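I have been asked to look over a protein record a colleague put together. Alongside the sequence sits a line of tokens, each denoting a local backbone shape. I have pasted the whole thing underneath without changing anything:
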Amino acid sequence: MNSCLPFTSSFRPPSLLLHRMFNGSVISSSTSFCLSRLRSSSRSRSIISFQHVEMASSASQPSKSVATGDAIGASDVFHMIQSYQAEAARLPPIEEVRTILDGSVRGILSTHSQDHVGYPSGSMVDFACFDDGSPLLAISSLAVHSKNLLANPRCSLLVAKDPEDRTDILITLMGDAVVVSENDRESVRAAYLRRHPNAFWVDFGDFCFFQINPKFVRYVTGVATASLGSGEFTTEEYKATKVDPIYQFSVPIASHMNKDHTEDTKAIVQHCTSIKVDSAYMLDVDSLGFNVKACYQGYNFKLRIPFPKRAHSRKDVKTNIMEMLEAAKATV
């Protein structure tokens, strides 16, 4: 096993967004990478396991680096990515869903249209999550979806982790939207303004807060690929799950690495995956590792890079990255 893979996991396969197929044909940036084009035998759609990540033996073998100038075929790279990502440790799906929703600020709200009865009405809305994961909306009484919710509280909120990548995780939270009472308004207002500090309009007279009480939370990942996965959670499961404690540091850590340590990130990715990537851009960080967008000979795709051990603090993240960098430099 690769030295950068100390965890065992049976979670969802990677989401791969390639702007060009490995066979060389050019496709648009919005078109996802269909694995079945590369491996016709990979026809089955795997459903994601809900088992928790377990620690594996730390006595793993060092990764074998790909030397500069090595001729690697397209299928070889594909198999290396597939093999590596199958073992990469990830947050349990329900924890990932809870964490992504907590860190998101915008989604598509679908309500029951009162002007066109029987048809759904979609609106792009800003939101924030309350402590229990319930989405909070600040809506003007002039908005169409305000009228719709007052007539029928059943609604859904669609959130994409990466709106530019349809193969990445998509989350739909279904629930009942209720107007927040005056007794709860201050706590809800504070939670909303933490995510939207410049939303001064929430104090305008025509605005009120709605809270969506979740009934079901569904996710799907790997859309338009052979690695399609999905799952659904009840409100009890969703509310009982905690947000990953490291994800709150994701933006400053990734920004720092992308600004000052791009070569270090690339070296770590090369060492961990054995793929001589041309670049690696850190996307986000959690307790078990980080995600990057890598480039290899003009092909862009996402990779999951797990930590040697779980991080419990921001300092642990730095320690893990330094350890991974030292291992990468030792093999050069």
Q: What stands out?
A: The CA atoms of residues 271 and 328 lie 5 Å apart. Residues 1-71 have pLDDT under 50 and may be disordered. The longest helix spans residues 314-330. The chain is about 30% helix and 25% strand.
